[in-house]
Amino acid sequence: MINKIKKILENSKADEYKIVETKTNSEELFLVKKDIDMTRSKEVHHFKVTVYKNFEEDGIKYKGSSSFDVHPTMNEVEINKSIEDGIFAAGFVKNEYYEISKAEDIKINNVKSNFSEGELSEWMTKLIAALYKNDNEVKGGINSAEIFLNKNYKRIIGSNGTDLSYESYDGMIEFITTWKETEEIELYKMLTFSNYDAKFISDTVKEMIFLAKERANAKDTLPSGKYNVILSGEAVKEVLSYYVDKSRAANVYNKISTLQLGDLIQGKNVKGDLINLSLDPELENSVYSAPIDDDGVPLQKVSIIEDGELKSYHGDLRYSYYLKTKATGDIKNFVIEPGSKSLEDMKKEPYVELATFSDFQMDSITGDFGGEIRLGWYFDGKTTTKITGGSLNGNIANIHGDFYLSKELQSGDGFSGPKAIEMFQLTIAGK
User: Fold this and answer.
1) Fewest beta carbons within 10 Å, which of 163, 205, 281, 407?
2) Whether the predicted pLDDT of 104 surpasses 80
């Protein structure tokens, strides 16, 4: 099929083209409590074609592009029609001109995964065992779960001679934990992984059951006011993704970010911890790890921010070309180095620790972040109280000159970094 697509493209009026072929073999399993409700196996084959047209108007060079799917069931007439329509559409897209990747004589490796050591179906039993290992409480536990495990093959073919391929594995578990006291509450968790790590899965379940229990027993809402806040859990990744977005080449080119190379992104007189950010295409146990991106650019670990100073932009070929910087490629994993304070040190003075939110959001354009509080703990210097309700509001640009990152680390969903952030005098809207 791919040779058929390639032959039609080479005889078309496209100036350049790219084909991304993906094959995915999947095992899916659905559970209610600890009982298997349904299982399913799938095999999916996709071809994503991009055609380019280079043209000039009023002395300005453009590169138009159009992307579309070619299905394995399509015949030559249907494929040819899709390509012609794509080329026609590309002629109306006035993207500033840029050069696509050049073919490189390189060898790339498959993404390392222990799931390669057997059939997918054999691993599902092990995943179930890891998921329910710590589900042994009377008043709560896993109410329902869905497990997905995929074997992926990706091949990138370009008109420039690029022809690279690799295999990878990715898994996802979605589960809901419940706890019942006077009323029943639910907490949702999505877990992604590319290796079988039983402890990682079972420890996550244990933590979620604990949080569900704490949430069920949390009744108090804080009075509105300013508090020293320790942000922990998934919200930490969302806040720190601000620095990834601000240093992205596409955002700089489109004026969404005003950062320039050499800028001290936290200011000159930082009282707290400095940000050290890198992108790592080989981050362990991440579903986003890959040796190349969809343009065929080989990916390597790259340092973006060092001690608060922006050292490099990051991004795909197009926007890196516009900024006249070397393309790092599209790397989706990011790493933030640990800070100077332990969680124990952060908790020596009165604090509010916030662990789960109904809907935590980070606006990388404005720097605003916040969400509705589902569970937290308030320490007034003597006693600790479980809290729920109210909302947190802050702006990272106002506080990152004086915040602290924890020495303790967390990892998951393409992120490795501090487990908590200590921030001062943040606004909580409460009762």
Assistant:
1) 163
2) no
Kindly indicate the confidence band of residue 179, based on its pLDDT and cuts at 50, 70 and 90.
very high
Q: How far apart are CA 180 and CA 141, in angstroms?
A: 10
Longest dimension (CA), the chain: 77
Residues in the chain: 431
Alpha carbon distance 35, 19 (integer Å)? 42
User: H-helix or E-strand containing 317?
Assistant: helix 317-323
Q: Residue 296 carries which side chain, given as an amino acid letter?
A: G
Domains of the chain with bracketed CATH: 2-216 (3.30.2290.10), 225-429 (no CATH)
pLDDT at 207: 96
User: Above 80 in pLDDT, residue 132?
Assistant: yes
Q: Are 332 and 414 in contact (CB under 8 A)?
A: yes
- How far apart (Å, rounded) are the C-alpha atoms in residues 409 and 12? 52
**Chain segment 243-262, per-residue pLDDT in tens:** 999 999 999 999 999 999 99
Residue 30 banded pLDDT, cuts 50, 70, 90: very high
Range list of β-strands (E), 85-219: 140-158, 163-180, 184-193
Taking the CB of residue 202, how many other CB atoms lie within 10 A of it?
Answer: 17
Given a cut of 90, whether residue 102 has pLDDT beyond it is: no
pLDDT of residue 100: 87
Short-list 272, 212, 223, CA closest to 378: 223
Contact partners, residue 331, CB within 8 Å, separation at least 6: 279, 280, 281, 293, 299, 302, 314
Give rounded-to-5 percent helix, strand, coil for the chain.
20, 40, 35
Provide the 3-class DSSP secondary structure of residue 401. coil
Of the CA atoms within 13 Å of residue 177, those in its CB half-sphere come to 29
- Tokens representing 117? 């050591």
According to DSSP H, which parts of 102-254 are helical? 120-132, 198-216, 234-246, 249-253
Q: How far apart are CA 138 and CA 364, in angstroms?
A: 42
Q: What number is the average pLDDT over the span 337-362?
A: 96
User: Bridge partners of 32?
Assistant: 35, 144
Strand residue runs (E) in 239-366:
277-279, 302-306, 309-310, 334-336, 351-357, 361-362
Angle between the N-to-C axes of helices 198-216 and 120-132, in degrees from 0 to 180, rounded to the nearest 10: 40
State residue 240 phi and psi, 5-degree precision.
Answer: -75, -15
369 band by pLDDT with thresholds 50, 70 and 90? very high
CA–CA separation, 49 vs 159, rounded Å? 11
- For 400, the 3-state DSSP assignment is coil
Q: How far is CA 81 from the centre of its chain?
A: 36
